[in-house]
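Task card 7
Instruction: Convert sequence to C-alpha cells.
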Amino acid sequence: MRKEITFALVAGIILGLIAAFGFWHAKPVVKEKVETAVQKALTSPTPSTIDVSLEITNPKEKDVFTDAKVKVAGIISSANWIVISDENYDYVVIPDIQGHFEQEIELVGGVNYIFVTALNNNGSFSAKDITIIHSSEFGKELSSENGPETKI
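Output:
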C-alpha cells in the first residue's frame, strides 16, 4: 500500500512541475501577443457616426402589419449605401439625390427585427433598428369583435 501512495505522490509532483514550467514558459509569449493586440486596437482608426444622419419614416416602431410585405423607407444625409437587414435577407440600397431610400421586405410571422445601416465611403456610418409585428390574424380579430356591419 505504501508503494502506491509513494508512486502517486512522486507522479503528482512531476506532473505539477511540468505544468508549472509550461505556464512559466508560455507567460511571456501570451503577454507579448496581448500587448500587440492592444496597440493595434489603439492605433487603428475607428469610423465615426457624426457625418451621417439617418431617419426611418416607414415603418414605425412596434407597428402591426397584416400583409407579409412592408416597405422600409427613410431619409439619409450624405450616405452612399443603405443596408437593410431583416430576419432572412440583407438588402443593399442606394439612396436618390435627395437622400430618400425605399425597399420592400418580406416579414415572418410574429416579431420582426429590422436593422438599417447607412454607410459613407469615408467610413462614417449610422445605424437604427425597428421592431415590428406581422400577424395575418390581427385584421380578422378586429372585424369579428365589432360584429357584422349594419347600415342604418
